[in-house]
Amino acid sequence: MNDFINLYKENLIAKNKSNNTVEAYITDIVGYYNFLEENNIDPLENDYSVNCYVQAITETKSVKSIERCVIALRSYYRFLSDKNLIKEVPKFPKVDRNERRDIGPILTVEEVEKIINCIDISNIKGVRDRAVLEILYGTGIKATEAISLTVDDVNLDLNFITCKDGRGLERIIPFGRAARNAIVEYLSQREKISKDEKMLFLNLNGKGLTRQGIWRIVKEYNEKASIKKIINLNTLRHSFAIHLLENGANPKIVQQLMGTHVMNYMDLYFDYVSKDKVNISYNNFHPRA
C-alpha cells in the first residue's frame, strides 16, 4: 500500500496542492491503513473497510475531522480508480452534521501559565517552543495559520502579526507583551537553526514546523505541567476566546481576531462563560438592575 500512497502523494504535489493539504491527506490515509492493520481488516474489501473506519472514528473525532478524513479517502480512491488500480470507488457512509459540536476542555489562565512556565528556555528548542505557545495563546490563531507565518508577517514595532486563513483571507492580530518578549528572544537565536528559511517557526533541522510539530510541542508541555485535561491543537485557541469573553471583550472583536470560522463556535463559547460574569454584566449594564 505504501506504493499507492506514494503515487497519490506525487499526484497531489503535481496538482500544486499546498504542503498543509498534502500532509493532512497523507496523514489521514496512513491512519486509515493503520486502523485496518490493527483490526485485521482486509484493505481490498473497500466498502467494508471504509465503513468500519468511518464508524470507528465517529466515536473519537469531531464531525469536521471525520469529514476531512472522508474527503481525503474519497480523493485517494478516485485516484486509484483513475489509474485502474481498483475496480470502483467505495461507497462512503453519510456523516451526520447535526451532531453537537464540541470545543473540548478549556484551560484556565493559571493552567496556561503553568504550561508556558515549565518550558526550559536555556536552549534554542525551549526558546522556540515558548514563542510558539505564546503566539498560539496570545493571538488565538490556528496551528495551520501558525506554521504558515513568515518572519515578515511579524511587526514588532506595532506588536501585530499578519495572518491568512485557509481561504486566503487576511487579518491583522495584535499580541501582548509576553508574546512579544518570547518572539524577540526567539528571533535573536533563530539563526542558530537557519539563516535562509523565510518561515517564522522552524524545526531543529532548519525547515518550517509542521502541524504535527506544533502538536508535539503542545502535548509535551501539557504533560510536563501535569495538566490532567485531554487537550487538542485548538485548546489554546478556544481558551484564548473564552478568556477574552470572560473578561468582558466585545464578541464582535473576538470574531474579528479569530476569523470567520469561529462564528460556528460562538454559542459554545458563551456556554463556557460563567454565570457570575453574566450576572455581573446584567447588574452593571441593565438600567433597572
Automatic annotation (TrEMBL):
<dbReference type="Pfam" id="PF02899">
    <property type="entry name" value="Phage_int_SAM_1"/>
</dbReference>
<feature type="domain" description="Tyr recombinase">
    <location>
        <begin position="102"/>
        <end position="283"/>
    </location>
</feature>
<protein>
    <submittedName>
        <fullName>Tyrosine recombinase XerD</fullName>
    </submittedName>
</protein>
<dbReference type="InterPro" id="IPR011010">
    <property type="entry name" value="DNA_brk_join_enz"/>
</dbReference>
<feature type="domain" description="Core-binding (CB)">
    <location>
        <begin position="1"/>
        <end position="81"/>
    </location>
</feature>
<dbReference type="GO" id="GO:0006310">
    <property type="term" value="P:DNA recombination"/>
</dbReference>
<dbReference type="InterPro" id="IPR013762">
    <property type="entry name" value="Integrase-like_cat_sf"/>
</dbReference>
<comment type="similarity">
    <text>Belongs to the 'phage' integrase family.</text>
</comment>
<dbReference type="GO" id="GO:0003677">
    <property type="term" value="F:DNA binding"/>
</dbReference>
<keyword id="KW-0233">DNA recombination</keyword>
<dbReference type="InterPro" id="IPR004107">
    <property type="entry name" value="Integrase_SAM-like_N"/>
</dbReference>
<keyword id="KW-0229">DNA integration</keyword>
<comment type="function">
    <text>Site-specific tyrosine recombinase, which acts by catalyzing the cutting and rejoining of the recombining DNA molecules.</text>
</comment>
<dbReference type="GO" id="GO:0015074">
    <property type="term" value="P:DNA integration"/>
</dbReference>
<dbReference type="InterPro" id="IPR050090">
    <property type="entry name" value="Tyrosine_recombinase_XerCD"/>
</dbReference>
<dbReference type="InterPro" id="IPR002104">
    <property type="entry name" value="Integrase_catalytic"/>
</dbReference>
<dbReference type="Pfam" id="PF00589">
    <property type="entry name" value="Phage_integrase"/>
</dbReference>
<dbReference type="InterPro" id="IPR010998">
    <property type="entry name" value="Integrase_recombinase_N"/>
</dbReference>
<keyword id="KW-0238">DNA-binding</keyword>
<dbReference type="InterPro" id="IPR044068">
    <property type="entry name" value="CB"/>
</dbReference>
